[in-house]
Amino acid sequence: MNAKPVQRAVSTAAVVLVGLCSLFSQSSQSSASPNSDAKAKPLFLEKNEGELRTRRIHTDASVPASSQFMLKVSPKNNGSQHLVLGTEELAPGASIQKHRHQGQDEILLLQTGTAHVWLGDQERDVHAGGLVFIPAYTWISLKNTGTVPISLTFIFSAPGFEDTMRCNSVAAGETPTRITPEERKECAHEGHAEYEGMQEKK
Fold first, then answer.
1. What whole-number distance in Å separates Cα of residue 187 and Cα of residue 202?
2. CA atoms lying within 13 Å on the CB side of residue 183
3. pTM of the full structure
4. Whose CB has fewer CB within 10 Å in the chain, the N or C terminal residue?
């Protein structure tokens, strides 16, 4: 038998085999992608449905932005690995302390009310129906400067900060425990966030 035709046949078979393996690998990866999100559950939630939590009592003179908040979408709530969403209401005069998130973008949606917002080196008023986009590592704070409560929806591009929020709170119905500034700093660290005046010393 002539060796050259055999070599060509073997080479052709090898190319076909490599091609099939590559195709199978790509097919497996593309079919595996949806399965990586298989744990996330679809949700229908009304305004009052979700994980309601009560903020812990600060031992210093600082005051939480609101007494309660509700987590609706997160790894613990419905298995979402990509988004975190929750809601809270800020009374007139209430403020969210200046802070920044180290690993997540955030969007704030104002359903009602008016807020004065400090975002990076900018500041302006945002009204009902408006939104604020906060890139990761950008300082943010806001104050309800209106006469009605702000109904606020917060959305994070990745999980993380909800761990800080849970650390700073207890489940609704439980008696809120006291929390020191040092404990709040530790909670912020859990959620990859930092608050002005509470940064790690370098």
1. 19
2. 14
3. 0.79
4. C
